[in-house]
Design goal:
Helix content: 25-40%
Number of domains: 2
Mean pLDDT: 96
Strand content: 25-35%
Largest sheet: 7 strands, mixed
Order of helices and strands: EEEHEEEEEHEHEHEHEHEHEHHEHE
Structural class: alpha/beta
Shape: globular
Number of helices: 10
CATH topology of the largest domain: Rossmann fold
Radius of gyration: 20 Å
């Protein structure tokens, strides 16, 4: 097998394409040959050192392919099954790998491997954010940062089907237009506009009941000012860097606000939750309510360039590595 690995944390240049031996799957494991591997911003956090991981390490949490073999006791999947997954252990940037069979989801025939590899982590993230962390209601108005990113484009479409008004943010007029094409009602170019003032203007001064924020340091405090009293700040990422320590008294001063820092992996920790979350996502995509389009494709060997592009905010929507 070939796999992208890193022996020290740092910039994209620490990533290396290596030849490795792959063993037969052990008890409870399945061997998957990847047809596509997902790229996500969490990969940057793990590579850079923002999230610590044991070294040396593989990279990647999302992939899609075909089961080649299964270990003892595995009944959920069988050789020949089309599958997709999102979650640990790290190692999705590879041609083939063994992983726990209970983390695999059967990929519907109507979906391509590229769609499967680019939608599992992002799509299930959207599902838990808007259906469980803050269950949105028809008529709600929400603020969704990074609306032209992989999670954002899925969220805009899904929220539109639920009758929710989406105020998105993005870093250029072109990205704002992309978010609107995917269902955002409004999109604020945060490089040229003050998003707090615009949110207050759009909502008639009331603010929004919830902010979904994967940007982190650059948007956190201002996002609190966009919330209505007793609103919820959902901070689920750190694309601009970690949020500095702050006085929680601010939550009271700004309107008895709620703050949560959720993670997909806690929302799909059980097999029951994983199946329910993925099933709802698959239904939305197969039914045409959410469209998954891969915007960037890179060869597995070009993972360094893929990371450079992600960090430079040059990508939109979904990206995949092709083994």
């Amino acid at each position: 097998m070939k796999a992208i690995r890193f022996h020290e944390q740092g910039g994209p240049e620490v990533l290396r394409l290596e030849d490795l031996e792959v063993s037969l799957p052990g008890p409870g494991e399945a061997q998957v040959r990847h047809h596509a591997c997902g790229l996500n911003f969490i990969d940057v956090y793990q590579r850079s050192g923002l999230y610590s991981v044991p070294l040396p390490s593989g990279l990647g949490l999302e992939g899609a392919g075909v089961v080649e073999a299964v270990g003892e006791g595995v009944t959920l999947v069988k050789p020949g099954d089309r599958v997709a997954y999102a979650g640990g252990p790290l190692g999705a940037y590879s041609t083939v790998r063994n992983l726990p069979a209970d983390r695999l989801c059967l990929l519907p025939e109507a979906l391509s491997f590229e769609q499967g590899a680019s939608m599992m982590l992002k799509g299930m993230t959207v599902q838990y954010l808007i259906r469980r962390t803050y269950p949105v209601k028809p008529g709600d108005t929400v603020l969704f940062h990074a609306a032209s990113g992989g999670v954002g484009l899925i969220a805009c479409q899904w929220l539109e089907t639920l009758g929710v008004t989406v105020i998105g943010t993005a870093g250029s007029d072109e990205k704002c237009e992309l978010a609107k094409q995917h269902g955002a009602t409004h999109c604020i170019n945060y490089r040229t506009e003050n998003f707090v003032e615009r949110v207050r203007e759009i909502t008639g001064g009331k603010g929004v009941p919830v902010v979904f924020d994967s940007v982190g340091k650059d948007t956190f405090l201002e996002s609190l000012d966009c919330l209505s009293p007793r609103g919820m700040m959902v901070s689920y990422g750190n694309a601009s860097g970690p949020i500095p320590p702050f006085d929680i008294g601010l939550l009271s001063q700004k309107g008895s606000l709620f703050l949560t820092r959720p993670s997909l992996f806690h929302y799909v920790a059980t097999r029951q939750d994983l199946e329910a979350t993925s099933r709802e996502l698959f239904d939305m995509v197969v039914g045409g309510k959410v469209k998954i389009k891969v915007e960037q494709r890179y060869a597995l060997a070009d993972a360094v360039q893929a990371h450079r592009d992600m960090e430079a905010r040059k990508t939109t929507g979904a990206s995949v590595l092709i083994p």
